[in-house]
Design a protein that fits this description.
The chain has 62 residues and is mainly beta. It has a single domain, classed as Rubrerythrin, domain 2 (Single Sheet). Helix content is 11%, strand content 29%. The protein has one helix at 49-55, and strands spanning 3-7, 13-17, 24-26, 33-37. A 4-stranded antiparallel beta sheet has the order 2-1-4-3, with no helix packed on it. Strand 3 (24-26) and strand 4 (33-37) form a beta hairpin. Bound molecules: zinc ion. Zinc ion (ZN) binds at residues 8, 10, 12, 27, 29-30, 32. Residues 8, 10, 12, 27, 29-30, 32 line the site of zinc ion.
Length: 62
């Protein structure tokens, strides 16, 4: 199971083991929704819909 990184609105990045398809978690610090980041080292080319339907609304903001 891959490690994903999640980033909350406050900018806190949390690494967590989650199931494939998990889109967001609760930030352990501020308890807001933290959205999944795509990490180069854990990215898997599996195709499928999780990327398209899960990430399209959350394009990265820097
Ligand atoms: Zn937070």
């Amino acid at each position: 199971m891959p490690i994903y990184e999640f980033k909350c609105p406050n900018g806190t990045v949390t690494e967590k083991f989650v199931k494939m398809g998990t889109k967001e978690i609760e930030c352990p610090k501020c308890h807001q929704k933290a959205k999944k980041l795509i990490s180069l080292c854990t990215f898997e080319l599996k195709g499928g819909g999780w990327y398209a339907d899960g990430y399209s609304s959350g394009k990265k903001k820097i």
